[in-house]
């Protein structure tokens, strides 16, 4: 889900509607070197991200946002590691590093922390967004 499914983040993240991978993988086992995510966040619609580390055997990857964050965000890096809990369960440890600037950055830091938390289950917000997107796609067809 995390490594080989790096491009499929839209299946579980409440803020991502769709994602596409690109670029030849720079790390063994990776499916791409970059991804572009169509996001459901007020104020912007796409985020471009680049894999900066990928280790399949350690179940770890690190990626950095290249483009698409609000102007007050100067750095956004996420470090994900999957850890086995037992034979049938695992947990995701996600470390996020954000740097921001200015008054807007200070005001938005708390909200950004809250929006980054995921539980492993599809949130009600994500389920509602998926239903909206499916309805929109049916109308377009």
Entry summary:
The chain has 141 residues and is α+β, with helices and mostly antiparallel strands. The protein has helices at residues 102-116, 124-140; strands spanning 16-22, 34-41, 44-55, 60-67, 73-84, 90-100.
Characterization of the model:
With 141 residues, this protein is an alpha+beta fold. It has one domain: Alpha-D-Glucose-1,6-Bisphosphate, Chain A, domain 4, CATH 3.30.530.20. It is 23% helix and 41% strand. The chain is built from 2 helices and 6 strands, in the order E-E-E-E-E-E-H-H. It has helices spanning 102-116, 124-140; strands at 16-22, 34-41, 44-55, 60-67, 73-84, 90-100. The chain has a 6-stranded antiparallel sheet with strand order 1-2-3-4-5-6. A hairpin with a 2-residue loop joins strand 2 and strand 3. The radius of gyration is 16 Å and the shape is globular. 12% of the residues are buried.
Low-confidence stretches: none
- CATH architecture type: 2-Layer Sandwich
Annotated CATH homologous superfamily: START domain
Average pLDDT for all residues: 86
User: Main beta sheet, described?
Assistant: 6 strands, antiparallel
**Span between N and C termini?**
30 Å
> In the residues, how many domains can be counted?
1
**Computed Rg:** 16 Å
Helix count?
A: 2
How does the helix and strand content classify structurally? alpha+beta
Shape: globular
Count the beta strands.
6
Portion in helices: 10-25%
Strand content is 35-45%
- At the first level of CATH, the class is Alpha Beta
Strand order of the largest sheet: 1-2-3-4-5-6
Q: The CATH topology, please?
A: Alpha-D-Glucose-1,6-Bisphosphate, Chain A, domain 4
Order of helices and strands: EEEEEEHH
